[in-house]
Amino acid sequence: MFINIYISSKNSISLNTFLRFFLKISKNKRIKTNIYSIQHSKPKLTKKFSILKSPHVNKKAQDQFEFRVYRKQLSLYSYQGLKLLMILKKIQCKLFADVKIKIEFVLNENKFYKETHKKFNPNKFSSKKNKVNSLSSKCYLQFLDVYGETYFKNNL
Fold it and tell me: What stretches of 32-152 adopt beta strand conformation (E)?
């Protein structure tokens, strides 16, 4: 199933460590996922508010505060949707309490396939031409596998 995960936090460091931790788990094959893109939202949400210092006469004596919310979007395909949701919930509750996660399931798969088809075009894929080793060829074969899946499902 295709899943978009929206991650937001007031602390940019905890947001980045959450992403690194999640990517490390997904690379260890504990969760069977294919990660398509990580998008950084450009506008940071900034909220400013002011509080009166004295509640009575002095209206000009105010303190001003602001906080920023940093956001990122993670698009992925998961073979084990329920396991992914349970792991995300446990990670967020026990390790990263200040990170807010919003999960959206993609129902219009054709739109998602078209986007991935544009991003993962094998003609645009480049590898090091001077030195070809088994790792780069394995990566290229995995890339062609994903491209073939999206192309096959689009044309059916």
Answer: 33-40, 45-52, 62-78, 99-105
pLDDT-derived band at 130, boundaries 50, 70, 90: very low
CA of residue 93 relative to chain centroid, distance: 18
Nearest to 128 by CA among 142, 117, 139: 139
* CA–CA gap between residue 46 and residue 41 (Å, rounded): 13
CA 59-64-8 angle, to 5 degrees, is: 145
pLDDT tens-digit series, residues 37-47: 777 766 677 88
Q: Which residues of 101-126 are buried (b: 16+ CB within 10 A; e: fewer)?
A: beeeeeeeeeebbeebeeebeeeeee
Q: Provide CB contacts within 8 A for 67, sequence distance 6+.
A: 10, 46, 47
CA angle 126, 21, 7 (to 5 degrees): 90
Give the pLDDT confidence of 102-115 residue by residue, as tens digits. 988 876 666 666 66
* 7 membership: H or E segment, kind and range: strand 2-9
Q: Between 4 and 29, name the one with better pLDDT.
A: 4
Q: Residue 49 has what pLDDT?
A: 85
